[in-house]
Amino acid sequence: MSPHLKNIIVIGGSFVGSRAAAEIARLSPATHRVFLIEPHSHFQHLFVFPRFAVVGGYEQKAFIPFDGFFQAEGVKGTIVRAAVERLEKGKALFDREIDVGGITGREIDYDYAVIATGTKLPPPGTLKVEEKIDGVKYFREHQQRVSNAERIVILGAGAVGVQMATDIKDIFPNKRVTLVHSRQQVLNRFHPDLHALTMKRFNELGVEVILGDRAVIPAEGFPVEGEFEVELQSGKKIPADFAIISIGQTPQSSILEALSPTSIKPNRFISVKPTLQISDPDYPNIFAVGDIADSGANKAARPGIAQAKMAANNIVRLIEGKGEELETYEPGNAAIHLTLGVKSNVIFANPRHGAEPPWCEEKDDGVLDMGVEKRWKSMGAPLNDFHA
Predict the structure, then answer these.
(1) Whole-number pLDDT of residue 89
(2) What pLDDT was estimated at residue 352?
(3) Burial category of 286 from C-beta neighbours within 10 Å (exposed 0-12, middle 13-18, buried 19 and up)
(4) Which of 42, 109, 118, 306 would be 63's cystine partner, CB 3.0–4.6 Å?
């Protein structure tokens, strides 16, 4: 590659980061090249993680090879297998030596950077491992624990907790499943109608729900075998032989801490302008999109992908010298596609305005592997070898 090419880096290869990289590669001029920087060996399909932590036989499909991604998108780009330890002005430092796309060593220069590092959730919401083989191993062990358990307690009634509770009870109807949530409403970022619909489904399946109470989580974590009790702050104790934690998210913003600490909010999310540039005026060439960005949007793939496309447009306008014509992002109403068991699912959107009713479509067309092969195909991954 020509040494005169300028680099645009996208940090984080999730749904949002990969979309940002593809859009930038599609729109940017021949003077620039795109690098997608991701430490995991494979694309991690986070949407299927709750299901594949319960159901066996599909776990290898949750990890999709990156190799064919840019080709499938019809654009040129390079995958860099590394984690960015920190951003400096015009330079990103890696956690390991790399030799790819004409870049060698532990750093890469950049003209523009997009941070799409997202947040970390307790497993199985996200995993701590980088290699596919270790992720598959984790899911198989988790499936076995679910299968062996008789009394399962799930902490947290966000999307992951709700989906796991309904999946387990749908697939293993004789198990006792108790869901504990600190608020009086499950999925509490959404209109109360979604709470009512979800509670109705819990009743149909026999999921026990405790609202307005919080578990006391031992410092060493819950036991991994045998019987124990999950104690709540109210003093109530729930007998269990498996506890699943689905509360708490940790924003992955530390790479920006040294360069622009003022851009990291007290909640650890990255402060952004409406243009999705970080709020620090010294770095108009750095953008943040998706869950890591404090954009006002719901933390979900759909708004994140919209942000990725807008950031790509704005980077190209900056390259073209049209910095006064940048697009601005306006958060839409929060929406979710939620599974409530193997077949039952709902698409739900909050009202755009307070007086309007929410939008809701209940469906009964779910499949056990959640149609994960569509993502394999869209990434140019081989459908004849899911162990790749």
Answers:
(1) 98
(2) 86
(3) buried
(4) 42
Residue 32 has pLDDT above 80, yes or no: yes
| Phi, psi (rounded to 5 degrees) for 141 | -70, -40
Strand, coil or helix: 338: strand
| Cα–Cα–Cα angle for 152, 43, 276, rounded to 5 degrees | 100
Question: What span, in angstroms and rounded, lies between the C-alpha atoms of 19 and 75?
Answer: 12
* Cα(270)–Cα(28) distance, integer angstroms: 25
What lies within 8 Å, CB to CB, of 244 at 6+ separation is 124, 152, 153, 154, 155, 161, 164
- Identify any residues that bridge with 92 across adjacent strands, giving them in sequence order: 87, 108
**Pairing of β 208-211 and β 176-181:** parallel
Per-residue pLDDT tens for 257-267? 999 999 999 99
Measured in residues, the chain has a length of: 388
221: region left, alpha or beta (phi > 0 left; psi from -120 to 50 alpha)? left
From residue 52, how far is each of 45, 139, 152, 246, 376 by CA, in Å? Answer: 10, 7, 17, 15, 16
On whether the pTM is more than 0.85, the answer is: yes
**Side chain identity, residue 350:** N
d(CA 166, CA 50): 10
Q: Which residues contact 356 (CB under 8 A, 6 or more apart)?
A: none
Residues 119, 299: contact at Cβ < 8 Å?
A: yes
Confirm if 339 and 345 have CB atoms less than 8 A apart: yes
